[in-house]
Design a protein that fits this description.
The complex is a heterodimer. Chain A is mainly α. Chain A has 15 helices and no strands. The chains are: A mainly alpha, B alpha+beta.
Amino acid sequence: MDIVKFILKRILQVIPLIILVSIISFFIIRLSPVDPLAELRLNPSISEETLQKEIQRLKLDKPIFIQYLSWAKSFVKGDLGYTTSGEKVSVKLKERIPNTLLLAFFVIFLTWSVGVPLGILASIKKDTAYDRILTILSSIGMAIPSFFFAILLLMFAVKTGWFPVGGLTSYNYNEMSVFEKIIDIIRHLILPVTVLFAISLSGLQRQMRANMLEVLDSDYIKFARAKGLSEFKIVFKHALRNAVNPMITLLGYEFAGLLSGAALTEYVFQYPGLGRLILEAVMKSDINLVMASLMMGTFMLILGNLIADILLVITDPRIRTAKE
Amino acid sequence: MKRLLGILFLLIFVFIFFKACIRADIPENEKKYIIVTPQINNIIYPTEQKNVTLNGKDYIQTQAPIGKFGGELVVSIIGEGPKTFNPCNTKDATSSQMAGILYEGLLTTDPKTGDVIPQLAKSYEINGNDYIIHLRKGITWTDGLPITANDVIYTYKDIVFKGLGNISAMDSMKIDGKLPQLEKIDDYTVKFTTSKPFAPFLRQLSYPIVPMHYFKPYSDKGDSIFNAFLSPNTNPKEIVSGGPFKLKEYVPAQRVVFEKNPNYYKINTKNEKLPYLDKLVYLIVGDTNNEILKFEAKEIDAISLKGNNVARYKEREGNSDYVIYNLGADTGTMFIAINLNNRTDKNGKPYVKYAKQKWFRDKNFRKAIDYATDRENMVQNIAFGVAEPLFTAESLNSIYLNRDIKGHKSDKKIAENYLKKSGFVNKNGVLYDRDGNKVEFDLYTNAGNLEREALGVMVKQDLEELGIKVNFKPVEFNSLVNKLTNTYDWDMVIMGLTGSPLEPHDGKNVWTSSGTLHLFNQGVSENDRFSWEKELDEIFNSASLKLNYEERKPLYDRYQEIIYEESPVIYLYSPLRITAIRKKIKNVFPTQLSGLLYNLDELYVGK
């Protein structure tokens, strides 16, 4: 019952936040000097009538405030509107969401299943060769820009021919058997997943290591050691449970990043995901598409935080008692 | 010790990795440019296609060598992919290209000569203002229904004349604001009647004809339904089309796949139905860098090469599986426009400062800039040698190009003489006009376009040798467009526009004084025009009334002469189109006018 009340309260708090975010983003996009019709204006074969028709269709002749209101009205009704080129925003998003989710799930699954154990290992074996090698590798991982790493891997793919150059499926995908289809998608996914994995792994691994070290250094662990508990029990039963709290908050943020993801990496690998779509939309000031994606990002962030908070309540008795 | 070894090992690894990347990208010898000679001069083109009637069906018979059926061609489109497959609603090049494969027009352009030739029509006759079109009998849409005069009448009357979809089609059909008459004579004959002779009209008949039974339910429901019709997500099986290929699959942001249309009306000399290819694949790639990678990984079969890549590809051509064609200059032109505007805005403030107006409206000053501009240098250093200096308003592949304008070398002496004639004086490397004003102005271009930014720097340097101070200001594309079309507060600008190599009248918005893109003197009033501007108005008006190429050519020659002579716009260069295509693709007959892959139905995959 408590938890339901907690969730309801959070949702109510969120409404003004969403309104504020939408107003700020709408105005920033509209006030930027990008004119969606600039290309048309410089086309010698486009007549004045056509231009006027386009201006009316995109509602550019109305004041920004009215534009915002009409956008907000249809948004509340669940209508995301049309892109500047006349396609339905919801359809465009729907095309891309599964691709982005596929990529994000792979990356998050790999990062967490590798990063957390590596972090634990590094903290237990602190100051050994193993820890140092991990430190070097994760420094490289954090320092290397994602697009640069992506380009290096692309060149690798071109030179060796082992991997396809970008995309998600081969052009003859539809004629393949189910097994071949899976292989084909995996072949396309390996490089972008490697890039994103390498980059987020370093951060996560460092974070986990730091958390663990802090806990391992605390008095109750020393006490447990003095009591003569086995190292395994100390690490997994006592230390880990306490070190995992900040990671849950982090997981909430990861959830938010599921759909906004990795525009640069997607762009370099020509991955048909949301990031690339939105990047292109921002450059063209395609307001409905950009707004839809920003709102989606906002919702995901709020939801992610909510989930993290709930998980924290469940895992951490201290928070639970504080609430009561 | 172990650690040191580890780091050393890592460094070596990184070094080797980088080294491996660098080596292949920079040709070993320091030869800067390799000029690719236009090989299209040596191509033996097939003779003209013929009309052949077999079992009551009017086919087109191509005279190209007989090929092998089957196989696929994989090429690329740059950008986000098509926005629609509705040929009446395309507003961008990719959508037009894709829709153009599905739907064809009555007439088309001969890829080599640029003449108007029949396509969906079997033949056409022109009697005064009447254009009589005879359709092919017995040819069908992909669903087996015949293509008849009803479809033609529907396409023009219900879509074009009503301004559905892309309204610019209606604009270009109008002659003095009046649409032509259209009449059905019988099931396979239609007649267009224009209100007066209008040369560009004939080419308008290349507008794609669409199947009435498939389009009508949507066009009847008005603009917004029609605009959403045939969006890329339409189920390909539903689409009724008529072109050589039909849509098989569209995967957003990845590819568009077409398959052979077995009902197509073209045959080879053995009377076998074309196209040869089973499948035609367009991969959607975000930018040219990715396209290059895809070509090198052999994922695509043809590519258009830009600047610095040409030398690299040419060097490797010998032991590769591709051929490089130089298709000659394309329709893109790069120019400096000068603002000749001498009017004031609503508040009585001049758009261009009075002192500057005097310079810009002075022909000698403009000529001096023309002579000071070193085009050869720009071609060599900015376009990597893959361009040709340009002196005419028509692009170099235009069938109306004035070949008597030979251009000139850049010459600082001549430029200085022109300046002297108008009383400019150079004192210690700074140029002053007759009234003692220092000559200094702004040069704009759109920021982010590296080529134009480099050009700006070069123009600045060239003009500084005359003592002119140029403030080069790359600005955001949109604010530049706003300056050019709205606020008029600019001095000079580096821009590019694409024109039509077939129809100079398309440039009327730029060259006639009332045009919407009359950049260099936008919004000029009737009695304020230069005499040469009036002559241009006269030329564009009268040339559009003449139907004969021979009659029009001298007029358009004169217009190019005027622009060259008066230099309100100083043309710099036209990029060359260099393309590479795998040797296994046969029946490739590239032309300067139509490019590499215009004859999709004739291409086949050989050994």
